[in-house]
Structures are given as structure tokens and as C-alpha cells.
Amino acid sequence: MKMKLFILILCTIIQGCSKLDDYMLGKDNTPKPKELKQIKDKVKVEQNWTVAVGKSSKNKEYLRLKPVVKSGIIYTADASGLVQAVNKHNGTMKWSTALKHGLVSGPAVAGGYVAVGTNNSSLVVLSENNGTKLWQTKVTGEILSPPTILGGKVIVKTIDGRVYAFNAADGKQIWMTEHGSPSLILKASSSPVAMGNLVLIGFSDGKLDALDVKTGRVMWQRSIAYASGPSDVERLVDIDADPIVENNVVYLASYQGYIGALSLSDGQFIWRKPGSVYKNMILSGNTLYITDSHDVVWSIDKRSGQVNWKQTGLKARVLTEPALIKNDLVVGDKTGYLHFIDSQTGEIIARSKVSSGVSISPSVIGRKLYVLTDNGMLNQLSVS
């Protein structure tokens, strides 16, 4: 596994880092962003409170550590190994648990459990109520995407293309299936997504598998993107954004591949268009919102794939995936700015600054934003 990641970094250096995002490699080789244009804010953003929930890190890896807001509590996971539960109203600490190893994914919160993936290829499950460690188990590779807690199971995908299901109560393995992975992959990953009795999982070879949630058996498989090009870097087609399922249609995207809508009835594409995405998308009404690997924000009609608008003014700022707050989008960037975008027109309508870079998309509840910064500070902001 170490060799696989080393090859990724080595090949990218040889290629001049021209096609891979700096956060995927832990080194900032992106062009210097253009100076931001002055704008007149059309929405008001106020900071209510801020609290430390982790440590500042110089590591610039892209990690799936988005806070989860549930029942008045914000659950956070920090790269240093700190998992915390914070009152969403005032920022007071409910509990804090320090793990021995750093974290690369999570938290997932459901059914009384909090699940995270560590940098030593382990899955750790804590009590949602008090943070007590309930169990921990080793797997064959790092869990780069947040686990999925479903029907008393914790389901995870590892970097080497295996999928595991564990009993959420005691950690006993229920099943394991092996898909495999190419020798060169991005250090990013999509999470398992529930669909009735199936679990949909995107892999680094551009394939989407549907597994039986009870047994792990592959029920069907679709090829979403196909590797092409003379170099291994050009042939990367990882599915790293979580698939979105709605009304028997799955919306998905791959790196250096496609953005598209796939019918689950016949396995055929309803539409697809070239695109390069490794961060999660969001679906609202008839619109799919995307931040692509070039830091362009897109609005796409989910029915036809027609582009409603695209915002190109934030290139090289290393944007987060978008979040939707009422009728506006918000994306964070590596310099600590939050950019608010009109979801109907794509116009940048406001900007706000926090204490450090924002690598993780804000979590939204009503008109409140919860923003975790790179220096380990959790911020609550109000938008009006």
C-alpha cells in the first residue's frame, strides 16, 4: 500500500503535477489564484462562536473529515486523532475522545454509533452518547471515505478495493467482497450509498458496483468511465464523489471521466458529459451542483445534463465541494474565504473570512453554517 501511494506521488512529480490537485498529494503546486474582485455583499454573514476541536496541521492531504450535525450536536473528527461532540447552539463540549492514530475519514453518525477511519488502516466505532470506544478492527487498507452505518452494519471501502460489513454492536465481520484497484489511484474515495436492499459503491477503475447489503454479493456492475491516454496519470478515472440516488436514477461523476445520470432500470445513461470531479456533488430540486477538479463551480439540469451556469472566477483557490444554504451556494477555499454564490445565476454575492484555510465543505442547518478550518477551529456563522 505504501508503494502504491509512493508511485502516485512519484508519477505526479514526473508529470509536473499538471492534472492532479495539490491537496491530493500533500503539496501545493497549484497556480497562484487571481486577486479577488471587490463585491458588494448581498447577504449578511455573522460569526456567532468558535471553538477548538483539533490541531493545526501542515499536512495538505485531501481528507474526508466533514462534521456531522445531528440532534443538536456537531460531531467532528480531526487528522490528529481527536473525535469530539459539540453543542451546536453554543459550542460547548459534550465529550472528547483522543485516538492513538490519526484519522483520514469520518465521522459517520447513526444508530448510536460514531465511526471513523484511521491512518493505520483501522475502523474505530465509538458511542454516540459519550464517545467511549466500543470496538476497533484492522482492515487491509486505509478507509479514505466515511463509513456507512446502515441497518446495524458498518460498511466501509478500503483503498485496495475491498468492501467490508461489520456488526455495528460488536465489530464482528459479516462479509467482505474484493473488487480490486489499479496500481495508480487518487488518495480519495467515495462512500458506500444505500439503495433499498443494495449498496452502491464507486471504485477507482471507473466502475460502479451494486452489492447485496446482507451478503455482499455483487448484483450488477456498470462501467462509468474508461481509462485512456499514454500515461498512468492520464488514465486515472476514479469515482471519488458519492453517488446520489433519486427515483431510480443515480447521479455520479469520475475524475477525468464523466458527469452523468444512469437509469437503474436498464443500466443505460440518461445523459453524460465530460467532466473531472473528485469531491461530492449536491442535488437540489432539478439541479446538480458540482465543484470540479479545476475549481469551477457548475449548475447542471439533472434531467438533461444541460449546463445552467458555471462560475470560473475562483480557479486555483482549491475549493471545497458546494453546500446549499437556502437559495445560495457556499464554497470554502484554501485561504480561508467562504464564497457565497447565487444558485440561480452563478453570481458571487458575498464573501466572508475565517481564521484559516477551509478544506472541508461547511455543514448547514437552516441559516447556520458550521465551518471546520485547517487550524482545527469549528465556527458557527449565521447567514441572513
From TrEMBL:
**What are the UniProt keywords, alphabetically?**
Cell outer membrane, Lipoprotein, Membrane, Palmitate, Signal
Give the location in the cell: Cell outer membrane
The domain of life is: Bacteria
Location (main, coarse):
membrane
Gene3D superfamilies according to UniProt: YVTN repeat-like/Quinoprotein amine dehydrogenase (2.130.10.10)
- Membrane topology recorded in Swiss-Prot or TrEMBL: Lipid-anchor
Q: Which InterPro entries does the record associate with it? A: BamB, PQQ_b-propeller_rpt, PQQ_rpt_dom, Quinoprotein_ADH-like_sf, WD40/YVTN_repeat-like_dom_sf
Would you indicate the residue range of the signal peptide? Answer: none
What's a GO biological-process term for it?
Gram-negative-bacterium-type cell outer membrane assembly
The UniProt entry, under SMART domains, shows: PQQ
What SUPFAM superfamilies does its record include?
A: Quinoprotein alcohol dehydrogenase-like
Key word Lipoprotein present in the record? yes
Q: What does this protein do?
A: Part of the outer membrane protein assembly complex, which is involved in assembly and insertion of beta-barrel proteins into the outer membrane.
Indicate the quaternary assembly. Answer: Part of the Bam complex.
Per its record, how is this protein called by name?
Outer membrane protein assembly factor BamB
Q: Which gene encodes it?
A: yfgL
